[in-house]
Structures are given as C-alpha cells and as structure tokens.
Amino acid sequence: MKPSFTKTARVSLLTALVLSNLSWKTIPNDENNPPLLTIKGFTFVDSNRNGKLDIWEDTRLSVDQRIDSIIKQMTNAEKVELLIGTGMPGIEVLTGPVGDSKQGLVPGAAGGTASFERFGIPATVVADGPAGLRIEPTRENDSKTYYATAFPVGTALASTWNKTLLEEVGKAMGNEVKEYGVDVLLAPALNIQRNPLNGRNFEYYSEDPLISGKTAAAIVNGIQLQGVGTSIKHFAVNNEETNRLTINAHVSERAIREIYLKGFEITVKESQPWTVMSSYNKLNGTYTSERKDLLTQVLRNEWGFKGIVMTDWFGGFAGFESIQNGSSSDVVQQMIAGNDLLMPGIPVQKKALLEALNSGKISQEVANTNAKRILEYIFRTPTFTKYKYSDKPNLTKNAEVTRNAAAEGMVLLKNTNKALPFAEKQKEVSLFGVTSYAWITGGTGSGSVNNKHTVSLLEGLNAAGYKLDKEVVDLYTPHAEKELVAEKERRKIKGILALPERLPEMKMDDAFIAKKAASSEIAFVTLGRNSGEGGDRVVDNDFNLANEEIEMLDKISKAFHAKGKKVVVILNIGGVIETASWKDKVDAILLAWQPGQEGGHSVADVVSGKINPSGKLTMTFPVKYSDTPSAKNFPGFPANNPKEVTYEEGVYVGYRYYNTFNVKPSYEFGFGSSYTNFDFSDVKLSSPTFNDKLTVSVTVKNTGKTAGKEVVQIYLAAPSKSIDKPKEELKAFGKTKELKPGESETLKLTLSAKDLASFLENKSAWIAEAGTYKVLVGASSLDIKKTAEFSVAKEITVEKVKKAFELDSKFTELKP
Known about the structure:
The structure is a single chain. By secondary structure, the chain is α/β, with parallel strands linked by helices. Helices cover 30% and strands 19% of the residues. The strands form 9 sheets. It has a 6-stranded mixed β-sheet with strand order 4-5-8-9-11-14. Helix 3 crosses helix 14, helix 7 (209-224) runs parallel beside helix 9 and helix 18 packs across helix 20. The two termini are 48 Å apart.
C-alpha cells in the first residue's frame, strides 16, 4: 500500500487543476444527452448535470484517478448500492416478496448494477446465457420484436475442436449483446462434465479441462472483441444441479487444481473475461462465494485476474426457504473473500452490508477495493460510454454462423457401408421419431434462448429438397404438435425451473412400417433428449432408452433391413446417452447435439454430404452408466436428498479413468468419424530433451475421396515415481483446414513446462518429474497413430503456490 497522504495530496492537486479551469462554455442539453462543458479547448460530458466539471468527468485524468475521486466521495450507503445488484424481475416466484424487483433497462435481462445520478454513473445490464442472449422477445406497447439467435449448445460447440470457428461464434453472440443494449453476457459456462447425468451438461464443454478452457477462451475473446463483457461460470466445482444451492463437495486439492480449476485458469490467462461468477455449492465445507483462497489467492494472485467476481443468483443462501424466512447470505465473508458483486441483490443483503460497514465489521479498505473493481467494470461498458445500440443485431448473418458451427460440431459415431452421405434427393425417405418434428434447439433454464423459430429436421430435409414420405409426415405432425403443447402446458404449471420431459413416441404397427420399408430408400430416426437448470437427469428412460424407443428402433431396423434398406439414427441430445445396447441395430448414427435454431438445416448439410462431419467427442460415452467413475458418488449422500458429495475418483475423471483402468467405452473421448480417411506421418519433436518448451509437428494427409477436416490430439504419458498419474492426458490439439483429397497440412503444437506437471499437495507445487515422457499423437484417445519420446533431465518445479482448499472431512481417493 502507498502512504495515504500522497493519494490525498494528488486528489487535492487534481481538484485544484479542475477548479482552475472555471471559464467554461456549456452546450444545451436534452434528456438523453447530458450537457457538454468546454474548458480551454477541451470538451467534457457533464454526466451528472451539475454545471461544473467534477474530477471523475475529466477525461484528461487516468481512469484510476477518476474512480478514486468517486470512491472518496461515496457514502457507505452508496457503496452498498454499488456492491449489491438491483434485483431481477420475477424474483418473487422463487423467493416470495423480498423487495423491489422492477424491470431493468432491457426486459428479460437477469439484473445489473445500480445508477448514481450524482456521479453520472448509469445502471449496467447483465443477461443470460451460454447458447446466446436471453432477453424477452416482445415488449408491452411495442410492435417491434427482440429475438436473439439460439446458437448450438456447449457440447456441440466444444465438439468442433475449432478455436477459430468458436471465436466467430463469440463475435456473433457479442453483436447481439451489444446491439440489444446489454453490457455483460453471463457466459460461457465451463464446468467439468464429471457425470453424464448433470442436468446442465448441455451448457458445458467437456470432461477434460484443456478442451473446456480453450473452448471458453475462444468464445470469450470473440464476444469481448465486440466491446461487451462475459462472465465465466460457475466458479468452481459446480458439477450437479441436485440441491445445487447447498451441496457440499468434498474434493482433494490436487483434483481441484488439475481438473476443476484448470479450464478456468486457461480462460482467465488467454482471454481475461470481464467477470467471473462464483458458484452456489460449498467446497470442502465453505460456500465458494466465501472462499478467499479461491477468489483472491488463486484467481487474482496466482492467475492475474483483473475483473470483478459476482455471485451466482442467490449464491451463499442456504436454499430459497432461507430467503423466504428473511435470512441473508454472509455478506461480510463474501466481500472479504473477494466476491465484489452480490447478485441479483435483495434488501436484506443491503441492510446486512450497511450495518457491517457502519460498525467496521467490514473495513473501508475491503469495500473500497471491491467498489473500485466494479467501477472499473462500469467504465468499460457500452452503457457508460453511451453507445447508441440499434436493437437490430445482424440476425441473418448470425443464423449463418450458427448453421455452420452446428454442422462442424456434429459427430459421426457410426457409418457402416457408407450409409451416409445420402444425397439421392429423388428417392423416398421415411422420417421417424417425434423429435424429427418437435426438434430440440437447446436445454432449458438460463441457458435457453428466446429465438424466433427453430428449423426442425422435417423443415431442414424439405428445404434441402429431400422427398419425404407424405403419409409418415402426416401421421407424425399432429402427434408432435399435440405433445409439444402438452409439454409447454406442464412446464407452465410447474413454473420457472420446470424440467423438460421426453416426448412420448407414436405407436405404429408392423404392417405400416413394412409398407414404408418397401417404398422408401432409407429411414431417418431421431432420438431426442432434453434437460435443464435446476435438476439432474436419471438413468431410466433418459440416459437409457425407453422401452418404446427400443421397440421403435427394433421394428424399423428389422423391416428396413429385410428389404436391404439403411437405417440412420440422428441424436438430438444435449449430453451423453447409452448407445452400446442398440448401435449394432442401425447403419449410421449422427450425433447432432442440440444444434441451435438452424439445426434442421445443419443436419441436412451433413447427411447430404454438403458438409463432411469433423466433430469429435469431448466426453466418453460409456457402455453402461455404472461404468462412470463417479456413478456411486452422484448426486451424493443421503441419496434421496443429498447434502454431501465426495469426489472419490480424484483426478480420474472421464477418459483419464477409462484408459487408466482399462474400462472399455462405447465411444471414447476424442472419437469421431468422417466421410474420408486421413493419414498421420512425419511426427517430429523439436528436441529429444525438454528445455522450457517443446514443439510437436505432425503431417496430416487426406487419403480419401472427399474433402474434410481432421483433429490432431496430443496426449502425454508422464513418469509417475512421486505420484500416481492417469495413463495419458490431453495436452494440445489442433484442427486442419479443409483438406482436398490428396492434400496435406503440417500442424505444429507446443508443450510448456506446466503441461508436463502434476500438482503435488505435499509440496504445494506443480512438478514435472525427471524421466522419459511419451507423446501420443492420435485421432482419438484410443486411436493413437504415432508416438515419440523426450526426456526431462532433472525435476522441474514449475510453480509454487500457497496451500488451499483444506479438506473438511477425510476420504480415500481412487488410485490405479
């Protein structure tokens, strides 16, 4: 800390500087545009309309000086208003009457920060979400519409493995955020997919932190290039929805740092998001929004984060009942921990924080530090800089971006005897499955988007010129419409966090299906799954297929195969489902994910061969749910109403477990087929010994007959003398450009010392052991094409840190 007298002297000097220029000329003002002051040839905005130039209005000074002058004048009550959000409309549905919840500047936005007229500080706006901007599409007494683009969900975006494309998606999202008058998009969400049943996995990217971090960083960079902010979430270890406000996750420091924080670390260092959102859950006995080790020691001091930390909505409350009972979160601890902004903000928190400030329970230093960070954020916003937003984002261009991104994220899981691509537009297609007609754009809750229209698979195939069997279409269309209406009604009755349910399939007799098998060339069958915020999925009739779905697949496969015809399954799902028991019954499986509003077009682009699928799985599809390493510890204990969840699997999450313990998956991490073939050759390391950095180069050649892209995955097998380690871990990846038949491209991928290191709790350090390291270059985690080796002469201490995340209860972690 600098001595306070120098700061006081500097501010006094600035005051003198400002007051010495009192010969100004004012320019008339109107309601929307504050008056301008012209002083000795300089023009300034009189943002608080008081007729004089205040220090914070003097743009000749640094932002730092201007903000310090505001904080110096702020009362405790004003600081409280700044540190606690302005509420959110509809809040009382969850909390009961808790105070003011008036509509903000942008209807449907999730909340924001307060305005301060005397400083000329406007209210700023934050809005959901991970698959695109979530605001109200229509407004009272307004004929205009405010639809946003529904982009592909997180699992679909990550499955592209294409950082350049992801940045383009970010730019398109950012365009809508800015042009609709929003300052921060509450996205991206990058929690680890610890278990396939997590209801919000559709928003997240992977079971692997490298994929999660690189995907999020690319999207953040794209969004923030538009001059608006992001809020990466949910920080941290928020891996389930069951009792999400209160669940206590017991996790070792090694697993926290290597698996659950690593993606956030990559994102912070590679994209500096404007904000980070602390999560709901407790971590080793303490709410994450109250953990100084997490929010200050690690996030700010170790990683260099410069933005603000905000809570998740009602973070730190012991459930909604506690809010209804008038309790507050521990605002003192949240502020001391480095949680700058409490969201959405309710009066009971303001009262508690004001009392704490007035009594000295919270020091002025803590309040001023947090307030300064919030003002630094506000000064960056389009609202503060008076950006004149149009309410007309480029929806046409953004629809094209989402269509291409969705197609690139689709994963071809199976393609026997070249069932796909199917480009014969004159031959009849039978389109089965209720979801072909009632297409799922994305999941529910804060991750959903109010888009104008979703292109179903029916519409997509029609638009692409396919000849669809009219009798099948006429049978399914009213069924799908009826079931959709019933589902919407059910959700409306259940309220704001109603979870979606699978739409029932239509019963068809064998004779009807046999007739279609005779007249149609191919059957497309869509299987759909949806999930959402506020609840987790279940094994029966969700992770596993329902009996009626199995019956439908059996009947269609039997009838079509009897006639020598092909059956293609399209998976319109947000997360993992069981595939092992039925995949042999069909000829091809295309994992389309929940591909956003243009999904039907994107599927048609892929099945027709217009686009060659190049998506790869960012998570493992197990043979059965019980193979999942966290299966016996999800969602926690006691089973019917979990209070605690123990991460006994430690670092052995996803493929780290399956590969290390030799558990065979249905489809492995990194898997994805193509309509062409690729050859990997000329694997070279920049050096046989590691010295600060190491470059791996590999040449990929398209040896097939169709243009396509391939993903190169670099795994590392490290020596494990001082600590157990997974058999191999993903450390770098790259995607080729579209290679024409016979064309090659050489990719160069770099490994740093941190990529070699594991976290040793007994040394509180990231250590790269001495010894031989094996580089595995693959097209998936199990399809390793080439290997190479290098050595580390002596142990490297890559980074020493302070001990953190002390366990609140002992448990035994899984070891090989």
